[in-house]
Specification:
The chain has 306 residues and is an all-alpha fold. It contains 17 helices and no strands. It is globular.
């Protein structure tokens, strides 16, 4: 279950959840299975593969069940902290949950990596980098954690360091989709559009690309308008697997330089309480909107410090 969930793909989450459920069926008192199941649900939400409204209750219920069975587990507090973050857009309160998780399980690279994600969303990037490096020290072969360090550098707008880190990840697992995605974003942010497009071409060729919105942003910035518009069509189609991808559409419009339509989709993300609203505080792709009074008003409405 852990192996599949840590692939961060639609199929991986489905398989991982199925294995954890099998473990619980065999032993309904197996607290660790509940703990990992709750975190797998949280990861599924975080990657946009599950509805926040539908899956949050499952994540919270399995986390609470794990703590009922074994109050010494740190993992369930990761889930509870993440749910607090995406449900309430609380950038301060979850720190207590993650710290409690580390008190109980200080040797867990997975917990430290999730804590790094939270710290990055909260704008505490130096702390995030420290936690992610500690996570890598604990498990040097975990490619999701290695790629995560590249993500932290990207969020800090330290693009050269991000590219170097992601390339290290790809030397361990050459086809790892998350690393390829981060590489394309950083190339684009640096203005290396040909290299960014090349990465996205290989990503889009996969059967189940996770990152259409990111590549739509890359194509738009590279002047490949038709490719960006084709991705936009796929993201906003009623037949899209999970309904229209509201944040993905926002990314594409930002890549195309269309702030008005980007704001429209951002407002829709707010109405739908998208899990990706945690990006509003500091995501580099939203930088073109930060001086826009409409964006500032949106942050004020949500109670997010600008």
């Amino acid at each position: 279950g852990r192996y599949y969930c840590q692939q961060f793909t639609s199929d991986g989450f489905s398989r991982g959840i199925a294995f954890f459920r099998q473990a619980i069926d065999q032993d309904p008192t197996f607290a660790l299975a509940y703990a990992w199941l709750s975190t797998c649900y949280a990861a599924q939400i975080s990657m946009g593969y599950a509805s926040t409204l539908e899956t949050n209750p499952l994540a919270k219920a399995t986390a609470m069940r794990a703590l009922e069975l074994d109050s010494t587990l740190g993992m369930p507090y990761v889930t509870l902290g993440y749910i607090r973050l995406i449900t309430d857009l609380d950038f301060d309160g979850p720190d207590r949950d993650f710290r409690r998780a580390l008190e109980l399980s200080p040797g867990s690279s997975w917990i430290r990596s999730w804590y790094a994600d939270y710290l990055t969303f909260a704008g505490r990037v130096d702390e995030a980098l420290r936690q992610r490096r500690l996570a890598i020290d604990l498990d040097p072969l975990d490619v999701s954690t290695s790629a995560g360090l590249g993500w932290d550098y990207f969020m800090a707008r330290r693009y050269d360091e991000a590219i170097a880190q992601v390339q290290r990840t790809l030397r361990v697992e050459p086809g790892y989709w998350l690393a390829l995605d981060f590489l394309s974003l950083n190339y684009s942010a640096k203005g290396m559009h040909e290299a960014a497009v090349s990465q996205c071409d290989s990503i889009i060729a996969r059967a189940d690309p996770n990152d259409l919105g990111d590549c739509g942003w890359v194509y738009g910035r590279a002047g490949q308008r038709q490719k960006a518009l084709e991705i936009l069509r796929r993201l906003t189609s009623p037949s899209h697997e999970r309904g229209p991808d509201v944040m993905g559409a926002c990314w594409v419009y930002l890549g195309l330089g269309d702030r008005d339509h980007a704001m429209e989709w951002l407002r829709r993300a707010v109405r739908e309480r998208s899990q990706f609203l945690v990006f509003l505080k500091g995501h580099p792709m939203l930088d073109p909107l930060r001086s826009d009074p409409r964006f500032k008003a949106l942050l004020l409405e949500l109670g997010i410090p600008s």
